[in-house]
Amino acid sequence: MSVEASEAEVVLLMGPPGAGKGTQAAKLAEARNLHKLSTGDMLRSHVARGTELGKKAKGIMDAGELVPDDLIIAMVEAELGPMRPVRALLDGFPRTPGQAEALDALLSKEGTALTAAVALQVDDDELVRRVSGRAADEGRSDDNEATVRTRMEVYRRQTQPLLDYYAARGKLHRIDGMGSMAEVFERIDGVLP
Ligand code: AMP
Q1: Cα–Cα distance list, 100 to 30, 82, 106, 158, 161 (Å)
Q2: Is ligand 1 within 6 A of the CB of residue 15?
Q3: For residue 117, what are the domain limits?
Q4: In a domain, 167, yes or no
Q5: Does 20 map to a domain?
Q6: How many Cα atoms are found within 13 Å in the side-chain-facing hemisphere of 71?
Q7: Is 189 exposed, middle or buried (0-12, 13-18, 19+ CB in 10 A)?
Q8: Which residues are catalytic?
């Protein structure tokens, strides 16, 4: 294995809306010197800049549905492809088995593989409480209650199969997402190599 490949590290953080994923992703990226890659943030930036991708994605995002795999994969490839070594904290990607397979293919082309997939687990009542708070704080147009419920359902329906995908490959770590930011961070950091 080359030196570059041995320095590669790709950690995936999964969790339903409101699980504290964004906050933990930022902390982990800083602590482990990883480039944080949030497909939600990237898409919101495209929407704000009015790019072609942003125009295609806006209605889908506002409805709480998933942007098609081909658009997401192209956007992620453009970021990860040139990275040497690949050191990334993935937040909100992959969301579907198709995206997971595309990520595996991309990493294997770079001579590396996913380090770990971390799934934050938080109960539903707590999630609704947290997301309602965030809607008031940040004014995100996709944080109203109906959209939040759709996004939770989309998470369960389309993203849960990823848990099986990564469990089958021995990559999955389920982490209790209840508790303070610091407690959850310690739990995540504790399972990473
Ligand atoms: P997030 O900030 O990760 O909750 O993403 C906000 C919205 O962006 C989601 O509800 C989706 O509409 C879209 N989105 C973000 N990441 C992805 C992805 N990997 N695949 C499909 N859609 C995505």
Answers
A1: 24, 19, 10, 12, 10
A2: no
A3: 9-191
A4: yes
A5: yes
A6: 17
A7: middle
A8: 21, 95, 134, 140, 151
The first and second tokens of residue 95, run together, are 């969301």
Its pTM surpasses 0.90: no
Distance CA 113, CA 189 (A): 19
The residue whose CA is least distant from atom 9 of ligand 1 is 61
Is residue 3 in some structural domain? no
- Residue 14 neighbours by CB under 8 Å, 6+ apart: 21, 117, 118, 119, 120, 159, 162, 163
CATH number for position 125: 3.40.50.300
Q: Which atom of ligand 1 is nearest to the CA of 99?
A: 19
**Residue the block writes with tokens 């492809």:** 81
pLDDT tens digits, one per residue of 87-111: 999 998 998 899 999 999 999 998 9
Q: Give the pLDDT confidence score for residue 38 in this predicted structure.
A: 92
Give yes or no for residue 93 CB within 6 A of ligand 1. Answer: yes
Q: How many residues does the chain have?
A: 193
**What is the domain count for the chain?**
1
